[in-house]
């Protein structure tokens, strides 16, 4: 099976309706809410190079798009979907990983987040370094939450004053990850220095004893 995961472009516009239909049918099967998207919206994402698509021998296999908020400070990877014919092959994780990496390339320094009810997506996000967070840590841009209006759980979100819903919020903060790496590096260096210090002390002690 020859599957390519690429940045969506003009030649992929023809898949926009199929992408929307697949998203909707998947949500119905899972019994979960979904913010409905139109083919025009999907095409717009492709035009702006804000989407990743998986194509297998010229057929639509999977898709995910990027949304940016608060002047690029927050980025969401949304609409992850795999066509039924290509499921159970790890394709969702490959698409998610590619759009995650692409988001960091296109929006360096942005916090990357998502809201989902899918356990599989939560697992993928967790593997990529996302952490569950309350909605208060996500963007406060009203345009983002307006995008949830097409979900059949939107009334719950409204009743909870946009602070809680059936979805779980997950966030990847590159600044936090950088600090973690620096802390890990400091811990490593300290251990190395302590080891070298112990070796030197042992050598000096041996030298004094020999003398």
UniProtKB/TrEMBL annotation:
Protein name: GNAT family N-acetyltransferase
Organism: Flavobacterium zepuense
Keyword Transferase: yes
One example GO MF annotation: acyltransferase activity, transferring groups other than amino-acyl groups
Pfam family, one: Acetyltransf_1
Keyword terms, alphabetized: Transferase
Top-level taxon of origin: Bacteria
Ranges where the N-acetyltransferase domain occurs: 3-151
């Amino acid at each position: 099976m020859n599957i390519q995961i690429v940045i969506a472009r003009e030649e992929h516009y023809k898949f926009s309706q199929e992408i929307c239909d697949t998203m909707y049918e998947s949500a119905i099967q899972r019994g979960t809410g979904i913010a409905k998207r139109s083919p025009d919206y999907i095409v717009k994402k492709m035009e702006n190079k804000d989407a990743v698509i998986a194509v297998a021998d010229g057929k639509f296999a999977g898709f995910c798009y990027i949304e940016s908020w608060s002047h690029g400070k927050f980025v969401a990877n949304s609409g992850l979907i795999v066509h039924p014919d290509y499921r159970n092959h790890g394709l969702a994780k490959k698409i998610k990983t590619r759009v995650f990496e692409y988001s960091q390339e296109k929006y360096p320094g942005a916090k990357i987040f998502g809201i989902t009810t899918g356990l599989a997506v939560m697992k993928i996000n967790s593997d990529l370094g996302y952490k569950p967070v309350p909605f208060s840590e996500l963007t406060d841009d009203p345009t983002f939450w307006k995008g949830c209006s097409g979900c059949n759980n939107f009334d719950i979100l409204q009743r909870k004053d946009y602070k809680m819903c059936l979805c779980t919020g997950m966030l990847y903060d590159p600044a936090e990850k950088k600090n973690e790496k620096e802390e890990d590096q400091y811990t490593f260096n300290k251990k190395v220095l302590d080891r070298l210090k112990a070796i030197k002390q042992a050598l000096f002690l041996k030298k004094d004893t020999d003398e």
